[in-house]
UniProtKB/TrEMBL annotation:
Residues passing through the membrane, by range: 43-63, 75-94, 100-123, 135-160, 172-195, 207-229, 235-257, 269-289, 309-329, 341-361, 381-399
Top-rank taxon, per record: Bacteria
Keywords, comma-separated and alphabetical: Membrane, Transmembrane, Transmembrane helix
Protein name: Uncharacterized protein
Record organism: Calidifontibacillus erzurumensis
Amino acid sequence: MPTIFVHASFFFFTLVALSGVWMRLQFLHPVPFLPYTNILHGHSHLAILGWAFLGAFFLFLTYYWRTLKQKKQGIILFFLLMIVSVLMFISFLYQGYGLFSIIFSTTHIFLEYWTSLFIYQQIKIEGNELKSEKLFIFSSLFFLVLSSLGPFALGYISAIGQKESYWFDMAMYFYLHFQYNGWLTLFLIGMFILICKKQSIRLEDRLLEIGFWIYVLSLFPGYFLSVLWVDLGNLMIFLAILGSIGQWIGVIFILLAFLKSWKDISSQYATLISVILALTFLFLFIKSTTELGLIIPDLSILIYETRSIVIGYLHLTLLGFVSIFILAQNFMLKILPVKRLSIKGMILLIIGFLLNELLLFGQGLLEWTTRERIPYLNEGLFLASGLLLLGIIILWMTITRQKCYR
Ligand code: HEM
């Protein structure tokens, strides 16, 4: 497989972290160079569509490369996704939400449809038996397509001059919910099951399937949990409660299945990989459990109004769970080598992540209780983002030093 693919995915991860450092720097020392909101839009779009999307697709290509029927199509698709992601990032930096950034992010959506079809066809070739990994991957593709209704709705709502209405935020949360709780979570779990099974690790399919169905059916009402701050009546509160408890139970079943095979998993992989996997699952558990707090309407309004809590939660999910899970699978597929340097890189990244979360959630709690600020908060957040950036670059370096990974 072209080596440029792995470098592209780490290049995007590095740019994501760099734009994060840039934003944190602005809190310490205003830099008049680019408007903050442009960097923010560039950062979040590149993170989800550049790093996470390409990172997940890269895992798929690596896993199937030898047996892949349409290698040429896979290469063209990956290159197009790379080019569009770069152009989208540059246009967000340059103009924020504007003509070009909208054109490129919409093009990305159409490439996502193509990618879904490509993945679907490849997995279908493998046979008709619907095993647990296929359930996870097929449904993730469905949620990927479903989530794209969010951005189209955003365009329509802006076009009719309702950008300031709560419909705009509802469309944005629709997109985010089905992207990270749907597409990314299900796809990465599906890939993890595939990799484990290839390694002859026995997993409890029954538990995984029960967990899958409870989780997936709860994802639909679970959307209302993200928009509880809009007063849409008791039915919505009931659906949000149903969704969040269902999602939590689904996650517990899935984690239980992994826990039951833990001995097998940890004996197959180096200690570093087992530790990263254990952390990933712990972050998924913490994320799902904290979501239960949103059931209380007053608390949910408070949470959505506290920026540091929202940002802390988004990064717990997208950085702590999604990104570290992608890295763990990179290690499992031997794309990232287990050696001293990669251990150091991973430690820095995890310390940076934990510091970031501690400060963001700590600040939120302090704001609610004493209305005070953590001393040197901005300096601490800047330090955390610097550690994250350094950790990612070190991990990337370990790949550049390898001549061939597959
Ligand atoms: C790797 C290190 C990262 C750093 C240092 C970082 C830093 C930041 C910062 C400083 C903000 C703005 C906070 C604010 O305005 O209060 C932010 C927002 C955000 N980040 Fe990250 N981030 C990182 C990784 C990621 C990743 C991997 C993802 C997703 C896969 C991500 C998704 C987001 C999203 C969705 C937002 C909110 C955007 C908005 O409010 O419009 N970040 N990040």
